[in-house]
């Protein structure tokens, strides 16, 4: 694995970096000083001259020093930052975008996701904005009901709600101190410095020297790439998603509605009194071109299900263009001994950056939330004890989480394959025998069992003592 990796090769963003023995003292170098929080002076370096990347030696001039830097302000990054914050640990979140992702649609959170949101203190606030989903209805493409389930009959204390991603992100971000997220901060380069620090360079030339780097930078994670992970694999189907808007109130019961066809499935679920989330998942031999025109996306999604139950078509029709997206589905299987380690030398991965999984179980974000609290607890207990304790904590996080996320990634993939079958005979068996007669929902939702106590600052001293 390379110790230095550049993600962006713009000439202005490249620096020569040197080993830790050549680090000048912070006071000796040119720097722009600015006050980022009360009583603490951080130094943000500006480069006097662009330096060629071709040289093998490097100079860490004056980098802003941070204990914990989190790369990415998605669900994983923000939940990790909030979890650490609850335990009294400051982190800096760097996000490439100019602001929180305000677009996007919705995602379904099962009870494991809600346990985490409760533990970090935002569950009640979010619950009040999103409907509790009582059950699930499965239909064939002609609208015939194949089966229906009630969640509380199948799995005790299950809690299912679809939440708007934007509101989830804003709610998490609002828990953090004002200077905790730095936007327009795309990670361009990462390098291990000595044995206990990592240098991060942003595309604007800013350098950060961190004791711990938490890569929460999503499915195409540059941090994961640097750690030796391969690109996630396309699984053969893509999803359209959108958020239907009913200004005068949506008409649906609080149930998840699925429609299963051949090589094609769709679903919709009420999110709030005025919004309904929908998806259409279709087989495609390749991820296809990136289409950004939302009106084209809408037409394509409608075309796929034009003869399907009319309420699905109506939800798509009621969708503002700017909430429609199309995503090729990918995952990465974390084979033991083959897959790189999720933590190495103070750098660790969380969420999709480590374990991208297909959305067939609705567990990607739920698992990212679980990762966040578990990592924060282990890290908080270890930070005061020094680098060896931190390294052990990261390894312990990896061991515990690998046993959770690896089987779920495989299962989600297999469920997706089953639901995307095209063969008419197999689909008839699936719809008329497996779904109608065999499937019980309870055992299929056992993976949502996850207990999580509230995070409290006082627990850090208890864990570490
Ligand atoms: C179709 C579909 C449906 C889904 N439905 C569900 C569901 O119902 N339930 C569920 O639990 N999960 C669901 N998921 C999965 C869920 O969306 C993801 O697991 C979750 O969003 C992962 O969050 P994350 O923070 O790890 O990554 P992301 O949300 O991708 O966040 C990564 C962040 O890192 C930033 N970043 C990337 N590179 C850099 C860089 N170089 N420098 C700085 N910042 C960077 C990005 O801008 C982004 O803000 C679904 C996924 C898909 C595709």
Automatic annotation (TrEMBL):
Domain FAD-binding: 67-402
Coiled coil, from the record: none
InterPro entries cross-referenced by the UniProt entry: FAD-bd, FAD/NAD-bd_sf, MOase
UniProt xrefs under Gene3D superfamilies: FAD/NAD(P)-binding domain (3.50.50.60)
UniProt keyword annotations, A-Z: Monooxygenase, Oxidoreductase
Translocase found in the keyword field: no
Listed Pfam families: FAD_binding_3 (PF01494)
Leader sequence residues: none
Assigned protein family: Belongs to the 3-hydroxybenzoate 6-hydroxylase family.
Name by which UniProt lists this protein: Monooxygenase
Naturally occurring in which organism (per UniProt): Macleaya cordata (Five-seeded plume-poppy)
């Amino acid at each position: 694995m390379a110790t230095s990796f550049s993600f962006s090769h713009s000439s202005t963003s490249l620096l020569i970096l040197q080993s830790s023995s050549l680090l000048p003292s912070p006071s000796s170098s040119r720097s722009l000083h600015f006050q980022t929080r009360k009583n603490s002076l951080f130094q943000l370096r500006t480069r006097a001259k662009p330096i060629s990347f071709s040289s093998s030696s490097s100079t860490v001039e004056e980098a802003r020093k941070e204990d914990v830097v989190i790369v990415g302000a998605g669900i994983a990054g923000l939940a990790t930052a909030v979890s650490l914050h609850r335990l009294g640990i400051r982190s800096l979140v760097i996000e490439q975008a100019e602001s929180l992702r305000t677009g996007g649609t919705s995602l379904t959170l099962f009870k494991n996701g809600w346990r985490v949101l409760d533990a970090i203190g935002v569950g009640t606030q979010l619950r009040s904005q999103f409907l509790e989903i009582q059950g699930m209805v499965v239909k064939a493409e002609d609208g015939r009901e194949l089966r229906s389930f009630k969640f509380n009959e199948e799995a005790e204390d299950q809690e299912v709600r679809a939440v708007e991603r934007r509101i989830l992100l804003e709610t998490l971000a609002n828990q953090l101190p004002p200077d905790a997220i730095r936007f327009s901060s795309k990670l361009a380069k990462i390098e291990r410095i000595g044995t206990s620090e990592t240098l991060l360079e942003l595309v604007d030339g800013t350098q950060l020297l961190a004791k711990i780097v938490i890569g929460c930078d999503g499915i195409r994670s540059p941090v994961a790439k640097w750690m030796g992970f391969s690109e996630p694999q396309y699984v053969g189907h893509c999803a359209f998603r959108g958020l239907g808007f009913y200004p005068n109130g949506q008409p649906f019961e609080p149930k998840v509605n699925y429609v299963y066809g051949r090589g094609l499935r769709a679903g919709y679920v009420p999110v709030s009194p005025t919004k309904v989330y929908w998806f259409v998942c279709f087989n495609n031999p390749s991820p296809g071109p990136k289409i950004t025109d939302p009106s084209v996306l809408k037409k394509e999604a409608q075309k796929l299900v034009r003869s399907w139950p009319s309420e699905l078509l109506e939800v798509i029709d009621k969708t503002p263009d700017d909430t429609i997206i199309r995503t090729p589905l990918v995952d990465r299987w974390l084979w033991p001994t083959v897959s790189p380690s999720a933590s190495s030398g103070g750098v660790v991965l969380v969420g999709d950056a480590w374990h991208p999984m297909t959305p067939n179980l609705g567990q990607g974000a739920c698992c990212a939330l679980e990762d966040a609290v578990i990592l924060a607890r282990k890290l908080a207990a270890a930070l005061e004890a020094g680098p060896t304790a931190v390294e052990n904590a990261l390894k312990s996080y990896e061991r515990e989480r690998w046993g959770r996320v690896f089987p779920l990634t495989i299962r989600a993939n297999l469920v997706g394959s089953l639901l995307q079958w095209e063969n008419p005979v197999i689909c008839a068996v699936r719809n008329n025998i497996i779904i109608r007669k065999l499937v019980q929902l309870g055992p299929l939702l056992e993976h949502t069992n996850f207990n999580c106590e509230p995070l409290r600052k006082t627990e850090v001293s208890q864990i570490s003592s």
